[in-house]
Sequence to fold (265 residues):
Amino acid sequence: MAEPKFTDILYETKNGVAKITINREKTHNSLLPSTVVDMVTAIELAERDKTIGVIVITGAGDRAFCSGGDVNWEKEGGLKNRHIAVNMRILHEAVRHAGKPVIAAVKGYAIGMGNHFAYSCDLTIAADNAIFGQNGARIGSPAEGWIVSYSVRVAGAKKAREMWMLCRKYNAQQALEMGLCNVVVPLAKFDEEVDKWCQEILDLSPTVLKVLKTSFEAESDYLREPAPNHFLKLVAPDFFDTPEAPEGQNAFLEKRKPNFRQFRK
Fold:
C-alpha cells in the first residue's frame, strides 16, 4: 500500500520511532481540519507498522509545539460547522487508540488544543522554553467533554479549573509541578532527551506496553461514554485488514455457514 501524501505534517520513521511534525511554523503550528486529518492518518500508519515501537509528535521549529486551532479559520466561521469542530477531536481518539506509547515533544507554545493534546499524550517532554495554557474562554472558542474533564486527572481539580477558567499561561517548570509534563530539559539537549526516552521504551515488551496503555484508557473511560469502535480499536486495530473481517459477510452473500474456526489455528 502506498504511503499517504501529507500537506501539513512531516512523517518519518527511523530505528523503531515514528516522528510526526506539525509543519506549519509560520502560524506557530496551528491546526486546520486538514492538519488534524494528516496527524490522525500518520498515527494510524505508525500503529499498523510492526517495526514502530513509539510515536513522537512535535512541532516545526523551536517557537511552538502547537498554538491550537488556526485563528484565521475560526474567524472565517470554522467553528460554526459543528461537524468539523467535533472532528478535531479525532486526534485525541487516535492517540488513545494507538497501541503504542505516544510522546508529545513540546518546544515553545502549547496553547489551546496544543495544550490539551500535549497532556493527553501518554508522555510529555518539555523544553525549558515551553509555555502551556488554555485560551478558549478568552477568545470564545469552546471545548467540552473528555478533553476538559481529563485535565482533572492530570493536574487536579483546582489547578485544572484555574487553567481552563482563568486562561493563565504556565512556564515549563510550573507545568511540571502541575503534572502537565513529565520532565523539563534545556532546549539545547531536547532532541537528545526525547531520543533517550524513546530508546528506553524500545527496550520494553511491546505487548505489555499495549496492555498497560489499554488499562489506562479503560480507567479514563469512566469519565465518559467510549467513542464508537473504541474497544475494537484498542484490542484489534487492524481487524478490518484481516481475512476474518469479511468472512461473515461473504458467507451470508454466498449462502453458506461462515468458517471462523480457521482463524483459531
